[in-house]
Amino acid sequence: MMETQKAPAVLIDQASKWYGQVIGINDVSLAIDGGVTGILGPNGAGKSTLFKLLMGRLKPSQGSVRLFGIDPWTSTSPYRRVGYVSESEKLYEWMTGLDFVTTLARLHGMTREEASNRSSHVLDFVGLSDVMHKELGKYSKGMRQRVKIAHALVHDPELIILDEPLQGCDPIARTSIMSVIRELGNQGKTVLVSSHILEEIERITEQIVILHNGRLLAIGNLHAIRDLLDKHPHRILINCEDPRSLANLFIREEPVFGVRFPRDGLLEIQTNNLSEAHSLLPSIVVESQQAIFSIENPDDNLESLLGYLIGGAQ
Amino acid sequence: MDEKGLDLAETVWTRLDRKAGAIVELTVRQLRHRISTWVVLGVGTLLMVLLLAFYIDAVRDSFEPIDNDGDSVDEDSDGYPRGQEMKYGTSDFDSSDFPGVSEYVPESMIGFNEQQRELYGNKTWNGEALFEATWIDTELEGEWWEDRIIDWEEIDDCPDQDSAGSWFPQWGSACEYGDPDGDGLTSYYVRGEWRGEGLATVPEGSFLEWGHYTEPVYIEPDPSEMYIDEDGIDCFDSAGKRVDCPVSDRLGGSHGYDDDGDCYREGWAEGSNDDWFLEYDGDGERYDPDSNRNGIRCDVLWIVDADGNEVVSINADSFVDEDPDDEQYVGELSHRTFIIGVGKMAFVILLGLFIPLFLALGLVRDETENGTLHFLLSKPIHRGEFILYRLLGYLTVSGTYVLTLSLLVGIVTATLGPGDQLFRLTDLPVWLGIGISTIFVLAAYGALFNTMGLISPKYGVYICIIFGVWEFMMGTFSIINPNWAVSSISITHWALQMIDATVLMAWPDTLQWAEMGEAYGIDTGLNFFWHPPVHTFGTQSGAVALLVSSVTLLTVTALMIYIGQSVFSRREIS
Q1: CA atoms of A201 and A226, how far apart (whole Å)
Q2: Which residues of B435-462 are buried (b: 16+ CB within 10 A; e: fewer)?
Q3: Mutant choice from A107, A114, A135, A158 vs B, greatest count of B C-beta within 10 A
Q4: Contact flag B572-A79 (C-beta cutoff 8 Å)
Q5: Residues within 8 A of B (CB atoms), A 195-214 only
Q6: Fewer CB atoms inside 10 Å of the end CB: C or N, chain B?
């Protein structure tokens, strides 16, 4: 018992999982305990496979997976301390949010009253207290994600695993879910959250794990990785009234080494220090005295990061 | 320590209980939100309503009672049923012969005398004589076959007036002999029966009997119903008093009483009457009040088998219609046949197969396909537990439905059913047994179908349908002949056995009723739908059969849950 108490929340040791010829996870070793960890990877990188191994849905083909020191494939006992939000979109549409969470809470052995009280509490925590008596079928995408999170939190777990919790959410829901996740991290819980969008994870945590094609590509602090990336050539796309006059102002600055005009009204700035370029942006825009319609960072995404990391590895 | 141990046990149990409660409740609510649930249960209810309509129709239709000994007919259409004619010794094949009809009373006779003798009188004559008539009743006539009666309209002259006695007219005819003594009165030579006043001269060696017909008396004809269902089954109590036989005493030995009297025929004591024709009944059969030859007049002999609980044959003396009241009898038999038939065909075979096919097949499989299983399986609950609680939820819905339906149908039939009592309370245990047997079937099929759905999510339904056909066949065979060993390789067989056992326990006299149905040739189908339970280990006890059958079904259910959970626990869910 003492040993399992000390065991890390998640311990993956050289685990591989393949489905026939297709590899889901390839020789991944990982130990996570405490704090919010972002699991980053493009679709098909093995994030869900990793979570399903953790949740005992799948049996590792090789290696071992332990939750609090216990094999989740053979025992359900770690689930007392784990909350899991799957990527599955289906809910019991005819149930109210409170009903749904209460029913699942009772599977933890709570009494009806206890479950109901805890459920209202977590629904309030995720910001659904005003709709918890409505049927799930009437919930928006963001509400559905939040009710799924509520069910995972109802038993006050030590480890929370969220599979793509921000997928398909509108910006308001996204912000509210992110703050919930950050709050959980502040409470000292171990949180695993997966996403294929770098920006989302960046707003939640600095501690990341990057998966690619089933392999563990990088693990560590996002800022450190980010700094490496910033030194890499980047593009900034600016949609404005007069791209050429704006280009004139930019080309004089040091981090900018080139400009292009891919389309009418569009300016592409090439830089090798993204953060410095961004810090220059406001003053130049003011100086140019023209309307800016949008600013995009097409290279500031997971794909570029991966491209950079893979390139570096090669 | 102890206290702590107890606490721990309590915690584990109450937690299990709470989990079970949550999943059962979830399952019930899920089933309630599915259209197919309502369709299946609705169709089942409709089926029962239809069957009840048939039942109510049959109950209201009065039953035509059966005349077991055939003495209610009136063959000669004289208005008197055969039973009544037999009591009066008249013939049911002669319309001129009926109770109260003027009857011939013989007075005396001249029998084959050595010399010619004479007698004067106004008589009915029967024999051979030269008759010098003062008056002749030319009206006297009988049926066409009674050719001894002289037809006075067809009289020829005798061939030779001088040679009287040397020739004879045919029996049943006469010839005119003229007036040999010249006193103005015509003489006839007659052979046969006639009525008239005059001087009869009986020739040497001839025979003449005479007498008179009584005045006809009007006797009220009995209604023919009197000779149908004369009585229930009579017994005699220890004091020799006639009582309605209690069902439990209807076994073995001599019972019965000839209530309508056409066997006893009061005043016809056998052998005391030397009138030769009275020893025969109206049909020309020798009167025999002990045709079953057990030395007791006008009784019914019941023969039972060696262990004394099964009637082998029922043998009544002639014209003892000693069966139970047919209307009551057929009513009771039909009522029981309906209940057993509906219990077996509609409840166990139809509802028992179709409800699980629609409700249980996808209990776990559908959760997997919907993706909602992830929520349930991320909770600390073993997959085997999950299957068990799902099945419990399904059984809560289907079991409540079946039990309610069986008791509702039971209340209707118990209210409308035959018998003097207002409400047939003894029917309810049978309906309860039917409900419970069906629940056992629902559990076994539910576990089996759910397991099939888990083993092969894609083809499970086809396997189940093939299996259902097999079960249907075996169920039918089990109804026809439960002793056929092959049919016991089916779930239905054991459930049907549970019903047979319940029936035997709730209505122990069903065996008796079935045998009587056979003995009296009244076919209500009870012998088709019900047989004594088979698996009694030779005890012939309903309780043993019930225990054996229910344990078998529970074992099958447990085995199927075990297989299902073994498959499901090893399954990867992506």
Answers
A1: 12
A2: bbbbbbbbbbbbbbbbbbbbbebeebbe
A3: A107
A4: no
A5: none
A6: N
pLDDT at B143: 65
Rounded to an integer, what distance in angstroms lies between the CA atom of residue A69 and that of residue A5? 8
Region B297-323 average pLDDT: 71
Burial A79-93 (b: 16+ CB within 10 A, else e): bebbbbbbbeebbbe
Quick one: A215 exposed, middle or buried, by C-beta within 10 A (0-12, 13-18, 19+)? middle
- CATH number of the domain enclosing A30: 3.40.50.300
Host domain of residue A133:
2-227
Secondary structure element (H or E) that encloses residue B210, with its range? strand B207-213
Reported in sequence order, the residue ranges of A163-299 that DSSP labels E, i.e. its strands, are: 190-195, 207-212, 215-221, 234-240, 256-260, 266-271, 292-296
Residues 12 through 31 of chain A touching chain B, CB cutoff 8 Å: 19
> Tens digits of per-residue pLDDT, B17-48?
888 999 999 999 999 999 999 999 999 999 99
**Residue A98 and residue A132 in contact, taking contact as beta carbons nearer than 8 Å:** yes
Are residues A86 and A163 in contact, defined by beta-carbon separation less than 8 angstroms?
yes
> Tokens 């995404």 belong to which residue?
A301
> What confidence tier does B10 reach under pLDDT thresholds 50, 70, 90?
low
pTM of the complete model: 0.73
Our CA-based measurement puts residue A278 at a distance from the nearest CA of chain B, in whole angstroms, of: 43
- Residue that is last in its domain, among A177, A212, A227: A227
Number of structural domains in chain A: 2
User: Which pLDDT band holds residue B68 (cuts at 50, 70, 90)?
Assistant: low
